[in-house]
């Protein structure tokens, strides 16, 4: 006896999923994006003129202009008026811009940012213990030693740059490019919102705040030097616990939301600094 095969019922035309129509300009953007990320158009290369690109893609020059503007926003090209458009592979800027939009659209709170920062930082310390070179360790030690001269600094920006510098050097020792880019953005963001929110505090406040964390930096460095993952991880956890406590104990910091209109311009300025 033959087994009856189930019949296939065709969906009514109106229920069939319709393919999304891709705008021609989006196809051009994607084509040029692929040329850039695959290095068919290497960094520093001048793009063909608008006329040449319009002939290549069979579209008008205004359509090409729209595609170029989008690529510039993505941090992939730089338009030098009078000279042309050049490839500028600014991956960190592209990532920072995308993350800024995501965090603000989703109304992410600062404590959620700290959660992610801590998770990435713990991965970073594990990798640094295993992969840090002598040069990596020397760079972290150099920056750590500079905290002894923190009293010589007159500008808050210089204090914050030193704080970020140590953490970025630690992240670089992980030798994981994606991790470095994500951490660089989160480090800059956390410090920027602190500075803008607590902008009334003077240089002494920021010096003291930076020095409060110095014992943790020294302990982290000692753990990496000794290639002792347990010691380095414990020191990093103490660093993060102290950071979280600072935010939790301050009603203003704890309540920060990245969709707050007062912070949008400040975060945008911070993101623009990722342009090289």
Automatic annotation (TrEMBL):
<keyword id="KW-0804">Transcription</keyword>
<dbReference type="GO" id="GO:0003677">
    <property type="term" value="F:DNA binding"/>
</dbReference>
<dbReference type="Pfam" id="PF07729">
    <property type="entry name" value="FCD"/>
</dbReference>
<dbReference type="InterPro" id="IPR036388">
    <property type="entry name" value="WH-like_DNA-bd_sf"/>
</dbReference>
<protein>
    <submittedName>
        <fullName>GntR family transcriptional regulator</fullName>
    </submittedName>
</protein>
<dbReference type="InterPro" id="IPR036390">
    <property type="entry name" value="WH_DNA-bd_sf"/>
</dbReference>
<dbReference type="InterPro" id="IPR000524">
    <property type="entry name" value="Tscrpt_reg_HTH_GntR"/>
</dbReference>
<keyword id="KW-0238">DNA-binding</keyword>
<keyword id="KW-0805">Transcription regulation</keyword>
<dbReference type="Pfam" id="PF00392">
    <property type="entry name" value="GntR"/>
</dbReference>
<dbReference type="GO" id="GO:0003700">
    <property type="term" value="F:DNA-binding transcription factor activity"/>
</dbReference>
<dbReference type="InterPro" id="IPR011711">
    <property type="entry name" value="GntR_C"/>
</dbReference>
<dbReference type="InterPro" id="IPR008920">
    <property type="entry name" value="TF_FadR/GntR_C"/>
</dbReference>
<feature type="domain" description="HTH gntR-type">
    <location>
        <begin position="22"/>
        <end position="90"/>
    </location>
</feature>
């Amino acid at each position: 006896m033959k087994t009856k095969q189930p019949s296939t019922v065709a969906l009514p035309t109106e229920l069939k999923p319709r393919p999304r129509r891709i705008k021609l300009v989006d196809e051009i953007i994607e084509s040029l994006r692929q040329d850039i990320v695959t290095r068919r158009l290497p960094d520093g290369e001048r793009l063909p003129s608008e006329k040449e690109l319009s002939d290549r893609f069979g579209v008008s020059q205004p359509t090409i202009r729209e595609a170029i503007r989008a690529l510039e926003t993505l941090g992939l090209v730089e338009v030098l008026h009078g000279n042309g458009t050049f490839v500028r592979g600014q991956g960190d800027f592209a990532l920072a811009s995308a993350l800024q939009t995501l965090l603000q659209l989703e109304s992410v709170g600062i404590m959620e940012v700290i959660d992610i920062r801590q998770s990435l930082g713990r991965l970073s310390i594990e990798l640094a213990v295993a992969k840090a070179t002598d040069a990596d360790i020397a760079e972290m030690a150099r920056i750590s030693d500079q905290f002894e001269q923190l009293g010589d600094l007159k500008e808050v920006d210089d204090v914050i740059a030193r704080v970020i510098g140590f953490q970025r050097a630690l992240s670089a020792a992980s030798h994981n490019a994606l991790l470095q880019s994500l951490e660089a953005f989160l480090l800059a963001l956390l410090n920027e919102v602190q500075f803008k929110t607590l902008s009334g505090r003077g240089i002494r406040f920021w010096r003291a705040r930076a020095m409060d964390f110095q014992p943790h930096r020294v302990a982290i460095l000692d753990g990496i030097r000794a290639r002792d993952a347990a010691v380095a991880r414990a020191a990093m956890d103490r660093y993060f616990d102290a950071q979280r406590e600072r935010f939790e104990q301050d009603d203003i910091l704890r309540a920060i939301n990245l969709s707050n209109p007062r912070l949008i311009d400040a975060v945008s300025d911070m993101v623009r600094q990722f342009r090289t």
